[in-house]
Write a structure and sequence with these properties.
305 residues; three-stranded antiparallel sheet; 14 helices; Beta-lactamase; binds glutamic acid; alpha+beta
Amino acid sequence: MNYKEILEQIQTEIHTQVNTGKVATYIPELAKIDAEKFGMNLYCINSGHYQFGDYSERFSIQSISKVFGLTLAMCIVEDNELFKRVDVEPSGDPFNSLVQLEYENGIPRNPFINAGALVVSDILISALDKPKQEFLDFIREIADEPTIDINPSVFESEKKFSHRNAALLNLMKSFGNINNPIEEVLDFYIFQCAVEMSCKELSTAFMIYANQGKKLITEKEILPSNKIKRINAIMQTCGFYDEAGEFTFRVGLPGKSGVGGGITAVHPGQYTVTVWSPPLNPKGNSELGMYALERLTTLTGLSIF
Ligand code: GLU
């Protein structure tokens, strides 16, 4: 497969696309980002990295962090403990919806909507001595990059506008599904969202999901393959807000997006790929990012379907 030529073609096509997306503004610091940024990094198990554009520039990973939070939780807590507090069904509702949670007695639909990630954060706080440090250490280890950190301005900015996430926490606490103080869980959740990584670093970190739970170069096992299978399944069915069906239909890979405009997707046994373009479509996924990934699976003829 000539991945170099395929990425060159995608790069050419990207320049001709009209982008009707809008950069997220509800976290004021995110609104400042240059809408023209575009990066893509493909990391193949057999042939390494291919890339173009702003692939090495760090951006706010936002909800992509929910995959790392879940993975860390699955490293330290038994699945039956974890999945009794958060379900694994697609939500079909916006990522920060309160309505479903009320109907379903405070059990979030899945770990990749905000309510689910807040429960996972609560579980991590109970299980870890230094949750923030250990969360960063985990990402640094799987990305092989000790300099990965949060953006303090994004962290502070989201803290000032987190009323809806606080509401989700209060509602879940009223149902007995949050054990730690609300302020502490909110602070840790926002910390995770404020992590910054580049397309290349995200593709490297996500290699554990393409390589049966092992890092690629050292083959060090982070999580057993049966648990990785579960995380990939949740990414496929729940990784794209209420557009997971559309993403599966168009792209055909498990993955996770964030309101910072990043998307990382996985082809188990083959590659990981990350795209970054800040303008989002009405469902909150990067408009050009989705286009680029659709072209990748079409031009390679490879998807999991
Ligand atoms: N920190 C964001 C929030 O909770 C994450 C949103 C996202 O990327 O989906 O609102």
